[in-house]
Design a protein that fits this description.
This protein is an alpha/beta fold and 342 residues long. It has helices at residues 38-43, 93-96, 142-145, 148-161, 176-187, 199-208, 221-227, 244-253, 274-279, 294-302, 321-329; strands at 2-8, 11-16, 26-35, 60-68, 80-83, 86-87, 107-108, 125-129, 133-135, 168-172, 191-195, 212-214, 234-239, 254-262, 283-286, 312-317, 337-341. 27% of the residues lie in helices and 27% in strands. Strands 3, 4, 5, 8, 9, 16 and 17 form a seven-stranded mixed sheet that branches. α4 (148-161) crosses α5. Bound molecules: zinc ion (ZN). Zinc ion is lined by residues 37, 39, 59-60, 149.
């Protein structure tokens, strides 16, 4: 088959590779669409240590089942599917407890952090365990289905934050995940305050439904938001960047007794305002990947309640993948999601 292979850091080559072999509990998926994730772009130069070459990246994908292993009963060739980005063991203690996203020895598709190497979906075919598959509704396209993963990450954060209808919520960082946080918070009936340093990200947040947009550097940001929330601050803030400054902005804007959900994951360590946390009884909640939110996201897409098309900047052939990775890496032209297709 043909695949886009990370042969060495910063070097992607579209070339012939052996077809993947499937285990008895796996299906072979003919890939119809695969989105380029920010984590692929960050990983591609070696800086995260999670894309050790040689590797076929790609974990935001959809396709058609081409073949099934002998233990697969529920799925058949021709089924349109998408799949979780996490391959988790079924007999793990955390999985059995309902938290498969925290399971030990879980692997992410298209990732090789040194302890494992699992080829992903920037290829003609990918091998997928049957327990992470989801059926794509007929009216959802393959390109839309390749966006489910990003929306599901945002929905998981909202579920972790247990937002209630009418809550005031702040979203710090309105890149791809932040935009889906805004959209889902609007569906949940919340008031949304979006904060980002990039004016075009803020414009996107406004289009996605945010009532208020702010640059974090503007004077008296905390007071302004307090003024719009009965002097208290927001009920829940979401941090979708992962750095000290933005985590601190998220904590700054939340009311006493409120919650901050951390989704961004760039800096290994950040500084926290201890006294504010203690005296304000703030709750800091980590949100990791996805825990079954795929079904809900597919329903939201199929029923037209969430639009993902406005977040796709380009749909391009896999053979041109290297070119698009380079554009994203050099941050050319404010690209949002780029989806590679056969
Ligand atoms: Zn991703």
């Amino acid at each position: 088959m043909k695949a886009l292979v990370l042969e060495e850091y910063n070097k992607l080559v579209y070339k012939e590779v052996p077809d993947p072999e499937i285990l008895d509990n796996e299906v072979l998926v003919k890939v119809m669409a695969c989105g380029i994730c920010g984590s692929d772009v960050h990983g591609f130069d070696g800086s995260t240590g999670r894309r050790i070459p040689p590797l076929i990246m790609g974990h935001e994908a959809s396709g058609v089942i081409a073949n099934t292993g002998k233990d697969v009963k529920k799925w058949k060739p021709g089924d349109r599917v998408t799949f979780d980005s996490t391959v988790y063991p079924l007999d793990d203690w955390f999985t059995l407890r309902g938290s498969y996203n925290l399971s030990d020895n879980r692997e992410v598709l298209g990732v090789s952090p040194g302890t494992y190497r699992r080829n992903g979906a920037f290829a003609e075919y990918v091998a997928i365990p049957q327990h992470i598959l989801y059926k794509i509704p007929d009216n959802v396209t393959f390109e839309q289905a390749a966006m489910v993963e990003a929306v599901a990450v945002a929905l998981h954060a909202i579920n972790i934050g247990r937002v209630r209808t009418g809550d005031n919520c702040a979203v710090i960082g309105t890149g791809m995940i932040g935009i889906f946080l805004v959209k889902l918070l609007k569906i949940s009936g919340c008031n949304v305050f979006a904060v980002d340093i990039n004016p075009s990200n803020l414009e996107n947040a406004k289009l996605a439904g945010a009532e208020y947009i702010f640059n974090p550097d503007e004077k008296n940001l905390k007071e302004k938001i307090a003024g719009l929330t009965s002097g208290r601050g927001v009920d829940v803030s979401f941090e979708a960047v992962g750095k000290s400054e933005t985590v601190n902005t998220a904590l700054e804007l939340v009311m006493k007794g409120g919650k901050t959900v951390l989704v961004g994951n760039i800096s290994p360590v950040v500084e926290l305002p201890l006294q504010k946390l203690v005296t304000g009884e703030l709750k800091i909640l980590g949100s990791c990947a996805i825990r079954g939110e795929y079904d809900t996201v597919l329903v939201l897409m199929s029923s037209g309640r969430i639009n993902v098309d406005d977040q796709v900047s380009a749909v391009a052939p896999l053979s041109e993948g290297a070119l698009w990775f380079n554009k994203l890496y050099r941050k050319e032209g404010n690209l949002k999601k780029v989806i590679l297709v056969p």
